[in-house]
Amino acid sequence: MREVAFGQYYPANSFVHKCDPRTKILFLIVYIVAVFLANSFYALAALAAVFCLVAVFSRIPVSSLFRSVKAILFLLAFTALLNLFFYRGKTPLWEGSFLTYEAVYFTVFLAVRLVLLVLSSAILTLTTTPVSLTDGIESLLTPLKWVRFPVHELALIMSIALRFIPILTDETGRIMNAQKARGADFETGGLFKRIKAIVPILIPLLISAFRRADELGDAMDARCYWGSKVRTKYKKLTFTWRDIVAFVLCTACLVGVVVMGQFIPAII
After folding, report:
1. Is the four-CA dihedral 118, 136, 252, 33 of positive or negative sign?
2. What share of the chain is helix, strand, coil (3-state, %, to 5)?
3. DSSP track, 186-224
4. What is the number of alpha carbons within 13 Å of residue 115 lying toward its C-beta?
5. SS3 labels along 22-42
6. Residues with Cβ < 8 Å from 94, sequence gap 6 or more?
7. Contact between 257 and 37 (Cβ < 8 Å)
8. At a CB cut-off of 8 Å and minimum separation 6, what does 28 contact?
């Protein structure tokens, strides 16, 4: 769990790091829409090429990026088994086989799609600080202030939640090491035994989470934090030529997937 990259920030002086957080958030939204619109491996290959281009310009190590995939390995395996055995196709892999060509094709397609979604989300958190992410979300949701929606508070909650992911994973690792030092066994036994062994971890982890939340609330109160009331910003968000390049790439990505969907048939 300590190797999960989602929610962590990787400091670097790169093209992607210097982009406006609003641009990166919008790019991620458009990229996710394009991934769901993709209906062939050609479209997914084009989206994977776009991701590789962004990853190169972000200067983030490949190992840091693929750590986020570890968090969904169980989900990948579970969905793969479901699709292999329950997806109905017409062409068996071999005569008498219950596995079909369409099921295997769709399973691989879904796995690639899920990996691209996770990796693209990890790029956002790895290249954007929690403060910048909060400012970007708040700026994008500014129109909702006209209906008295607590935009600043919502952006702050989302940012704190993202920041607490690596903190709680580290805390989980420390609790597990402490339990192992006292003779706890988390690696042997059946499924129900392992689930039962998790209970001594969840209780102190829950207590630690509430304690950290209480300390954070006291720290914000000691600094006279009152939400969005009468607040100014030290750094104002501004668009640069980098954001224009990102918008062009983002638009080309979405248009390309739509055009490929019109001329290239679906995978099934």
Report:
1. positive
2. 70, 0, 30
3. SSSS-HHHHHHHHHHHHHHHHHHHHHHHHHHHHHHHHTT
4. 21
5. HHHHHHHHHHHHHHHHCCCHH
6. none
7. yes
8. 120, 121, 123, 124
pTM: 0.76
- Cα torsion 101, 109, 3, 194: sign: negative
Residue with tokens 């002086």: 13
What tens digit of pLDDT does each residue of 213-255 get?
Answer: 898 888 888 887 777 666 667 777 888 888 898 888 888 888 8
CA angle 58, 64, 67 (to 5 degrees): 135
Q: How far apart are CA 236 and CA 180, in angstroms?
A: 48
Please list the residues that pair with 92 across neighbouring strands.
Answer: 100
Please determine, for residue 197, whether its predicted confidence score (pLDDT) is greater than 80: no
| Residue whose tokens read 């879904």 | 110
With helix as H, strand as E and coil as C, how does 103-170 read? Answer: HHHHHHHHHHHHHHHHHHHHHHHHHCCHHHHHHHHHHHCHHHHHHCCCHHHHHHHHHHHHHHHHHHHH
- pLDDT of the residue at 1: 46
- Per-residue tokens: 39: 């209906």
Q: What six digits make up the tokens of 135?
A: 């400012």
Two tokens, residue 234: 């030290």
